[in-house]
Write a structure and sequence with these properties.
With 219 residues, the protein is mainly alpha-helical. The chain folds into 3 domains: 31 residues; 124 residues, no CATH class; 33 residues, no CATH class. Helices cover 39% and strands 0% of the residues. The termini are far apart.
Length: 219
């Protein structure tokens, strides 16, 4: 039997296979990088909670101040989650018999906290101090978005290291008077650039190269 000779066109298969392998590798790398990025995995995450609490109604319509529930946000690293009693300050008489309030009633009767589902969950190696940021005029909306319009709270920013560094390098756009930190609908009545520079000086926020002493923010 004579020896089989491959057709000459098969010579191009090596090139095609090489290109295909390179393209496939690149596709997998991009797929993993995009699929695992914070903008894909975190932004838009809005889990259903055990109590159907509407920020749109309580904050947006009724004007409840953020600090009524999250009462440590100005002074502590963590923004406190309200205990059951905080809900009952109003709902002991308002809609007390509503089916939506059943988990709250059970929590109060059992003495066990409501199992709220965390929305904004930073890595364990990350330290973020709410008080330090609030006291420097960073509004809630800069990180959490227009919560006053949310029926179900969802994450709107990546909260990635790069996102944080962008703000630390150029904080002026996010600065506001302390009296407006909790006001999500606040709009500056002067040039934002001028206001940002003025507030940066007022809050003694140093340029990044000078941020070597932790006490500048964490006093």
């Amino acid at each position: 039997m004579g020896r089989f000779v491959f057709p000459t066109w098969t010579n191009s298969l090596r090139t095609v296979a090489g290109v295909g392998a390179a393209a496939g590798t690149g596709y997998v790398v991009l797929l993993v990088a995009y699929g695992a990025s914070p903008s894909t995995t975190d932004v838009g995450y809005g889990p259903w909670q055990p109590v159907a609490y509407s920020h749109a109604m309580h904050v947006g319509e009724l004007g409840t101040d953020c600090r009524y529930c999250h009462n440590t946000v100005e002074t502590a690293a963590r923004a406190a989650i309200p205990p059951t009693q905080t809900c009952l300050n109003c709902h002991a008489t308002i809609l007390a018999d509503s089916a939506k309030m059943l988990p709250v009633a059970q929590s109060y009767a059992n003495g066990s906290p409501i199992s709220w589902v965390r929305v904004h969950d930073l890595p364990d190696y990350t330290y973020f101090d709410h008080g330090a940021h609030v006291q420097r005029g960073i509004g809630c909306v800069s990180c959490h978005g227009r919560v006053d319009r949310m029926e179900v709270v969802a994450q709107v920013e990546t909260l990635s290291m790069g996102w944080c560094l962008d703000c630390h390098r150029n904080p002026e756009p996010n600065l506001r008077p302390l009296s407006e930190v909790m006001n999500m609908a606040w709009v500056p009545n002067e040039d934002p650039t001028v206001l940002g520079k003025r507030l940066r000086g007022q809050y003694d926020i140093r340029p990044p190269a000078q941020l070597t002493d932790c006490s500048i923010c964490h006093r």
